[in-house]
Amino acid sequence: GENVEQHPSTLSVQEGDSAVIKCTYSDSASNYFPWYKQELGKRPQLIIDIRSNVGEKKDQRIAVTLNKTAKHFSLHITETQPEDSAVYFCAASISGSNYKLTFGKGTLLTVNP
Amino acid sequence: DAGVIQSPRHEVTEMGQEVTLRCKPISGHNSLFWYRQTMMRGLELLIYFNNNVPIDDSGMPEDRFSAKMPNASFSTLKIQPSEPRDSAVYFCASSWTSNEQFFGPGTRLTVL
Question: Which of B33, B100, B103 shows the shortest C-beta gap to A49?
C-alpha cells in the first residue's frame, strides 16, 4: 500500500518568515495530494491540493509543488502569521471510485510573534 | 449544510464497556471514513465505506472494533469491550468525487 513520509515533525519560525514542509510517497500511481491544517482541538481542514497533471499550485500565501519523478511534494507558506500555527498533514491518494487518503504523520508549525 | 455530524463529542467510559460512536455524513456524499488520532500514531484510517459498502477495513485494530453503515446518512463505530489503549479522538469524514474529505468535529474517547 501507499506510504507517506512527512518532514519535519516540528517547525518553528518567526512571524513573516517562510515555512516549508516536505512529503514523499511510495506509490507511483498516486495522483492526488491534499494538505490539511488542524488547529488545536479542531478538525483537519483542507487548505490546498494538487493533482499530478500540474507541478505547482498557489493560493495567496500558500503554495504546493509536486515532483512526480522524485515522488515528493511540498507545502510552502510565505509571510507566516501567528494564526498559521497548527499541525499540517500531507496525504496521497489514487483517484478512482474509492478515494482513500494515506496521511503523513503531521508537522507542528509554530509561528512566533 | 451542517457538515459532518458526530456524536457524542466526548465519551468517558470504563474498561470493558461497550462504546458506540455515531456519524452523519454530508448529504449527497457517497464515501465515509473513520479515523483515529493519537499523539503516538497520528491520523490512522480505520475503515471506509463507498455507497454504504465497506471497502477497506484493514486499519481496524482488532475484532473488538466494528463499523456499520446501514444507510447513506448514518454510520456507527463500535468498540466492545473497550480498553484504555482505545483512548483517542475518533473522526468521521465524508467525500464525493472531488477527493476532498470533510471531517466531523470528532469524538474524544477516554477509557478508564
Answer: B100
Contact list, A105 vs chain B (CB under 8 Å)? 42
Contact B90, B107 (CB under 8 A): yes
Contact A103 B45 (CB under 8 A): yes
Dihedral sign, CA of B28, B34, B36, B41?
A: negative
In whole angstroms, give the CA distance from residue B31 to residue B102. 10
Q: φ, ψ for residue A82 (rounded to 5)?
A: -55, -35
Q: What is d(CA A81, CA A98) in angstroms, rounded to the nearest whole number? A: 36
pLDDT tens digits, B93-110: 999 876 789 999 999 999
Interface with chain B: mutation pick from A5, A35, A100, highest number of B CBs within 10 Å: A100
How many percent of chain B have pLDDT more than 90?
83
